[in-house]
Amino acid sequence: MSFSITEIVLANKVFVGPAYGIAKLPSFRALTANDIPNLTLSYEANLGVPPIDGYVLSSTVAGVRSWVAPGGGGSGAAIGVTNYNSLMFN
Fold first, then answer.
1. Among 42, 49, 63, 85, which lies 20 to 30 A Cα-Cα from 28?
2. CA 70, CA 57: separation in Å to the nearest integer?
3. pTM over 0.90
4. What spatial distance separates the first Cα and last Cα of the chain, rounded to whole Å?
5. Are 49 and 58 in contact (CB under 8 A)?
6. Phi and psi dihedrals of 33, rounded to 5?
């Protein structure tokens, strides 16, 4: 298939197929509501900012996210590293 575009097109027009009905060759036309997909289910809920400074974002294996207080018990040291000079930081 080959084609050439030789017409002058006004602003706010897109080169697409028909907005509804049977399939036809594309032409320049304005977008319609049918051209825009429904994205409301594509985003997760906005969690906003944590309620208290220092909270971290946590996630369950089911994908449920929430702000939680940081866990304790860690020393802050790297686990399994005996030569700290060999660590590379980017």
1. 42
2. 9
3. no
4. 49
5. no
6. -60, -30
Element (H, E) at 56: strand 56-59
Alpha helices, H only, 1-90? none
C-alpha distances out from residue 18 to 2, 33, 56, 74, Å: 19, 12, 49, 61
Look at strands 56-59 and 27-29 and give their pairing: unpaired
Q: Which two tokens stand for residue 17?
A: 């197929």
The model's pLDDT over 18-50, given as tens digits with 9 standing for 90+, comes to 888 888 888 889 998 888 888 777 777 777 888
Q: Which two tokens stand for residue 87?
A: 């660590």
Higher-pLDDT residue of 77 and 67 is 67
Which residue carries 């985003």 as its tokens?
43
Q: How far apart are CA 47 and CA 58, in angstroms?
A: 11
The beta strand positions in 1-90, using DSSP E, are 14-16, 27-29, 56-59, 65-68
Query: What's the pLDDT at 50?
Result: 84
